[in-house]
């Protein structure tokens, strides 16, 4: 039996806690927040709406390993995510598709564009706007420019706080048009929502006699690392077990190599009567002077039995300020050469401590969808089992 200390009760920490406890090890999970679930935490609010405190989380995956693993901890409800965007004053499917073309171009032009798309790329294909531009057909270039401006440009500027010339060309080029009337946001083979929400899954993952969860604990105040000696101290004494850390890597090393860059969000949550919008998510790819926010989420569309009234969250991207009143949650890493190099240096430092494993979106400084982090946690468990016999 080994002593496993896990920092963070999101999917990375909770899946690893479950796996180690089920294999006969003693596990302590330290979580700085007052609840488990990490950024996937949800709860029933006073409108009887299951609210996602850190923004809407939609489960979708092509991994049967992940869907089967999670099915041990939840029943599911069928759910296909749909997103509409406010484009030229109309609510149209995102990603932009043939419905959008019909709504935004005069009938003769729309017919010509659809004909060109179907004959060149085939019905059902997804064509990046770079591909449309390469084509040199003036109508397809016009479509590419339209999608760039009306779907992508202002949304991205708001999301990342960037000016048009700071926007990465490689990302721009990947923005697709869907050559179909399919208005689903995801195409994965498994698209379901947990029937009782995500927090119920975390409760079950962590419900094991060998797992102790301590909330409201900043683990970095209890853990001291000595990279030169390759050792860990916990509460002032030598720690001989395995430390799995899922929080911010720069914080773990007391920002010794500088602070990593993040983008944050602020959610303006409002209670409304009845139903607010036709689908869960409406994007506002409009200029910031028209709408300062990027999207509005209406949570009750993700519930099986719909409450009478409703809760919406208006999402404002903002600069990350770890000490601020708002914007103090590190949501998305900002990938620059400098931040990547900084992260690599932290990783080198971490490698000097054999008992330490970094896993999760904050510790690995990268974006993971839920299915990807669950898969990663399952892999890390196997790796650690192999390494420790
Ligand atoms: C706005 C938004 C929307 C998203 N929507 C989707 C979606 O629709 N579908 C999807 O598949 N994925 C979505 N994701 C991704 C999803 O949130 C992540 O995959 C998931 O949260 C990663 O889990 P994690 O355990 O790595 O991190 P987290 O969930 O962030 O968990 C880390 C935990 O560690 C704790 N912690 C950190 N430092 C310390 C410390 N020093 N001491 C104690 N505890 C600490 C934190 O409080 C947190 O609870 C979304 C992400 C964001 C930002």
DSSP strand count = 22
Mean pLDDT: 95
Which CATH top level class of the largest domain fits?
A: Alpha Beta
The CATH architecture classification of the largest domain is: 3-Layer(aba) Sandwich
The unreliable regions are: none
Bound chemical compounds: flavin-adenine dinucleotide
Question: Sheet bearing the most strands, described?
Answer: 7 strands, mixed
**CATH topology of the largest domain, anyone?**
Rossmann fold
The class by helix and strand makeup works out as: alpha+beta
- General form: globular
Number of helices: 11
Helix content: 25-40%
If you compute it from the alpha carbons, what radius of gyration comes out, rounded to the nearest whole angstrom?
23 Å
Question: What portion of the residues fall into strands of 2 or more residues?
Answer: 15-25%
Arrangement of strands in the largest sheet: 8-7-18-19-20-17-21
Count of structural domains: 2
CATH superfamily of the largest domain: NAD(P)-binding Rossmann-like Domain
Secondary structure topology:
Layout: E1 3-7, H1 11-22, E2 26-30, E3 42-44, E4 50-52, E5 60-61, H2 64-71, E6 76-78, E7 83-87, E8 90-94, H3 98-104, H4 107-121, E9 126-128, H5 129-134, H6 138-160, H7 169-173, E10 176-178, E11 190-194, H8 198-206, E12 211-214, E13 223-226, E14 231-234, E15 237-238, E16 242-245, H9 249-252, E17 262-272, E18 281-283, E19 295-298, E20 310-319, E21 332-333, H10 337-351, E22 356-358, H11 370-388
The structure holds flavin-adenine dinucleotide (FAD).
The site of flavin-adenine dinucleotide has 35 residues, from helix 1 and helix 11.
